Amino acid sequence: MLMFANFFSRVCYVALLLGSMNVLSADFSFVVRDQFGEPLKDAVIEFKDQQLNHQDNLSVAVMDQIDKHFTPKVLVIQNGQLVDFPNSDNIRHHVYSFSTVKQFDIKLYSGRPEKPEKFESPGIVVLGCNIHDSMVGYIYVADSSEVLKTSVDGKVQLNVSTFPVSFTVWQPNQQSDIDQKKTITFADSSQVADIVITTIEPKPRNTFGEMFKGTND
């Protein structure tokens, strides 16, 4: 009888402990908007305390160049991943980055460069073209196993088993510094799941002018 009482006490304790963890069985959805209430595309959500298990077999990501645009505009990769930069235009491009996270320079080329570039530090990499200065792209190098990017509706859905949950939010048109990430914490699933990022209209970049473009256009 005493043995059964001890077993029953242990079961009650485990049940009480699990109940205190605020387990959530349903998916948790939220939306990222700008200051005017419009949904934000290309907002990157990276969940904290989800450290990436570094792998040697990560696939090679692709940042293409189509119609004088980096495609996709925002590429999300993992720390340590390789990125290929094919040029799908019928003109040459010269891809570079001066970002502290990754500085590189792929001189004037068509087709595919000789080798992909490896990104070994987390953060934001801003891309440019030394021939077409209006071309701007971004590579978000994540250091977490959980990272998502919003589509045109600004929505993100994930399965959360415990609260509180913390993550960072970044978007290329944000008013704050390009390297800054906004930290958000949801204490429980009852919180309003709307995130507001103040944005600014990006200014066209054409600092070189037409005189340096030659006949590559």
UniProtKB/TrEMBL annotation:
Residues 1-25 form the signal peptide. SUPFAM superfamilies: Cupredoxins (SSF49503). The keyword Signal applies. Keywords: Signal. Transmembrane segments: none annotated. This is Methylamine utilization protein. It comes from Pseudoalteromonas lipolytica.
